[in-house]
Amino acid sequence: VGNAVTDDYHDYVGTFEYWWNHGLISDSTYHYLRAACLFDSSQHPSVECNKAMDLADKEEGNIDAYSIFTPSCNKTGSRRKSLKAHY
User: Fold this and answer.
1) How far apart are CA 60 and CA 19, in angstroms?
2) CA neighbours closer than 13 Å in the CB half-sphere of residue 39
3) What pLDDT does residue 4 have?
4) Which of 24, 58, 70, 75 is deepest in the core (most CB within 10 A)?
5) Measuring CA to CA, which residue among 56, 5, 11, 3 is closest to residue 38?
6) Tell me, what's a Pfam family for it (predicted)?
7) What's the CA gap between 11 and 66, in Å, rounded?
8) Which residues of the chain have pLDDT under 50?
9) Alpha carbon distance 42, 37 (integer Å)
């Protein structure tokens, strides 16, 4: 199915739980996200929810939250050259 959308509430819960359980965000940010965003629309989040999401993004840093256990692949990475040569 890929990255299917269920509804805003369950998508937020799943996302926040994932970030928190994998140590990408602090306990306080997790609780802030839950308080500020759980009943918001993902299309039109509140100002407070946007602040909470910005804080979570800052805490995650340069980590790809969709692939936390794999090395990054970017323009200058050594893996990029080997992948490009393969294809």
Assistant:
1) 8
2) 1
3) 66
4) 24
5) 11
6) Peptidase_S10
7) 14
8) 80, 83, 86-87
9) 8
